[in-house]
Amino acid sequence: MTADPMRALGAALALTCAVIVGACTEAPGAAASLSPRASASQASSSAAEPPVITFDPPHDTSQAPRFVAGRWASTLPLLDVQFAVSPEPPFTCTATVDADRQGGTYGCNGLLPGTTDMRLELTGTTSQGLRARATRNFRTMSDRLSGVPWFTEFEDPNGEALACAAASARIIQSFTTGRDIQTARQILARGRPLNKSADPGIDPAAIAAVITALEPTNRYHYYRYPTREGATRAAVYWLLRSAKPVIALSLAGQHAPVITGYAGTFGAGSTAAVDLTGLVVEDPQRGDLDPATANHRPDKSRSAEFQTGKLVSLDEW
User: Fold this and answer.
1) Per-residue pLDDT, 147
2) CA distances from 33 to 28, 57, 73, 153 (A)
3) Can you name the CATH fold of 30-139?
4) How far apart are the two ends of the chain, measured CA to CA in Å?
5) Are 217 and 26 in contact (CB under 8 A)?
6) What is the pLDDT at residue 29?
7) Domain ranges in the chain?
8) Diameter over CA atoms, the chain
9) What is the pTM of this model?
10) For 182-207, what is each residue's pLDDT tens digit?
């Protein structure tokens, strides 16, 4: 992303409102590798044994997504499947069953409350009357993610300010996988061929694509909104839905910091009230305190808080 002050001035009234967000469910093809489904011969040889039911593996049960969605699998076909969430939310939670009756989906129609200990329970019965149960305990994320790393876009203090989006992609890769595998400059070089525009850095399509290229289970998508308010609400929604940082394109598309939290109210139900007053932002540029890089966007203040997540008002945002 370029940071030319003249472009910022000329585009001030045409703010680009876009976000790059992560999905919170596994890809459809991933379920087979996670599924403990048994073959027909295995099922018959173990008919006296109760089935084993499993859920998709969670990313982090200590700050889990506030949106429940995933797949379940069973070692034996199940004739009766029941799904429950406790504490019981004020909206519907259901499970589906595949044609072979050894797997399906589960999910809820709304966002769970934050910082709450939750329990999922799925039970089923085989044709032989054998009953099994699977449970999962987790704590939903609060109003901000913890443990999100920070990286500067200025790996070369004398270089151009074009790697903010690449540094944000590096932040997401490291947070979601625990592995820091490429620098921002390397991600920038990897992402440029994926651009759908003439952006000298990497554009929204390339940002989403390179995040997935770095880690296939990180299925990020980009969305464009006609207003800043709409983009802000969507960014917080997807943050809570996925429990993954969201990249927001600001300054008419010239900058791409990471949103890791919010201030205000974002209700638990599907139609609950939303009243946002601020965003928690990690910024690969504004968190860099090296005097050698101070000539880039001197109109924007810098602070070490941008390395851990600084709360900024919506006016500043």
Assistant:
1) 96
2) 10, 11, 11, 36
3) Immunoglobulin-like (2.60.40)
4) 17
5) yes
6) 39
7) 5-25+143-313, 30-139
8) 74
9) 0.82
10) 999 999 999 999 999 988 899 999 99
